[in-house]
Amino acid sequence: MGFRKKNKSPAVLSHEFVIQNHADMVSCVAMVILLGLMFEVTAKFAVMFITVQYNVTQGLDERAEPVNLYQYGPKDMATVFFYLLIAVILHALIQEYVLDKMNRRLHLSKTKHSKFNESGQLAAFYFISFIWGCSILTAEEFATNPTFLWAGYPHTHMVFQVKFFYICQMAYWLHALPELYFQKVRKEDIPRQLYYICLYVFHITGAYVLNLHRLGLVLLVPHSLVELLFHASRLFYFSDENKQKGFTLWAMLFVIARLVTLTLSVLTFGFGLPRAENQGFSLAKGNFNVLTVRMTCLAAICLTQAWMMWKFINFQLKKWREHSQSQASKVKAISPKSKPHKKDPARGGSANGVGLKSDDKPSPRARKAL
User: Fold this and answer.
1) Which residues does the chain have with pLDDT short of 50?
2) CB 33: neighbour CB atoms within 10 A?
3) In the chain, at which end, N or C, are there fewer CB atoms within 10 A of the end residue's CB?
4) What per-residue confidence (pLDDT) applies to 346?
5) Residue 287 pairs with which residues in a beta bridge?
6) Judging by DSSP bridges, how do beta strands 158-159 and 67-70 pair with one another?
7) How far is Cα 22 from Cα 25, in angstroms, rounded to an integer?
């Protein structure tokens, strides 16, 4: 009778222990911050982590209710850190209760397993970002007046939804850095993920700090839709390799999104901001409307879009080559084999395969053989 072997638990604070229990450890840190609200001494510090800071209340009319607007400042780093912890916890919940259960049913390989987890997490994030961004834009006047992107710059004041949206965006992409360790991402996949994580952090933080949150929000919404479609299509492809129609729609929308991004960026930095009333550079007023900053922002956006198109073209060429090779192999397998020619009945044949014509006379040696 054999005894069942028990799995040994990893040593405390070892790499495996941290990876297996990172969500619980992060939850404890978040709970400590929340418990700080219960005591008067620590409440003012806990509030800095949990709530949105730099509230500026303005009354647009004496009779109307005051509008709560916000600015940005160094205390926002504490808020971003707290919601980074929340993102780690939500990441672990989605992984354990949704993606792991689906992986057990699909029986994917290691390569497809890591890509499936990546697409599952990003699809959920892009879906929330797209819906949230659309709800904010519907309350603005961008649909009827595109000049809202640069009119009244610098846009130092933000409504609560806009500021909280940017804080959550920065928190999510910063949390993706430790997730490379927690999720045991393969070494060959780390550089690719680091590239787009750093690009997201750079562009979103830049739009937030330079008071370009209107342009950043407008550009993030179509981008989120395109990325949502790509990762959703990849999830369907892993479940059934015949489901590839979503990639065709994604390819069309990807090119359109790149053109929209370049058009709005050139329109804002090339025509809108140079004609704005407030020109100059002032950290105190949050004004960065100078030629150097404008050209730097436009160059960063154009280079990023060019890099994305280059990766997109290489991806499409690779898929086209694979498809053409698979089609060629199928054609070779289906083509009928060449059949042997039948012998002419007018010609006689001997038992040893040597045929003699009726008009030919056998040689003396042939006579002896016969």
Assistant:
1) 1-6, 337-339, 342-360, 365-370
2) 19
3) N
4) 45
5) 282
6) antiparallel
7) 5
* CA-closest candidate to residue 225, choices 197, 252, 194: 252
Helix (H, G, I), strand (E, B) or coil at 95: helix
Cα 281 to chain centroid, rounded? 34
- Return the axis-axis angle of helices 245-266 and 291-334, rounded to nearest 10°: 160
Reported for 187-191, long-range contacts at CB under 8 A and 24+ positions apart, including other chains, are: 189/114
Give, in degrees to the nearest 5, the angle at Cα 10 between 7 and 11: 140
pLDDT at position 370: 41
Q: What angle do CA 116, 121, 125 make, to 5 degrees?
A: 145
Pairing of strands 158-159, 280-282: unpaired
pTM: 0.84
Q: In terms of Cα–Cα distance, which of 287, 257, 259 is closest to 273?
A: 287
User: Taking CA 349 as the corner, what is the angle to CA 348 and CA 354, rounded to the nearest 5 degrees?
Assistant: 125
| Both tokens assigned to 322 | 């694979």
CA distance 51 to 30: 13
What does the block give as tokens for 305?
């879009």
Three-state secondary-structure class, residue 158:
strand
CA 141 to chain centre: 28
Q: Tell how strand 67-70 and strand 55-58 pair up.
A: antiparallel
CB of 268 within 8 A of CB of 295?
A: no
Distance (Å, rounded) from C-alpha 206 to C-alpha 72?
12
Q: What is the pLDDT of residues 294-334, one digit of tens each?
A: 999 999 999 999 999 999 999 889 888 877 887 777 777 77
What pLDDT, on a 0 to 100 scale, did the predictor assign at position 338?
47
Give the Cα separation of 158 and 173 in Å (integer).
21
| 164: number of Cβ within 10 Å | 18
pLDDT score, position 10: 80
Question: What pLDDT does 145 receive?
Answer: 80
CA separation for the pair 277, 347 (Å, rounded):
103
Q: What is the DSSP string of 321-348?
A: HHHHHHHHHHHHHHSPPPPPPPPPTTS-
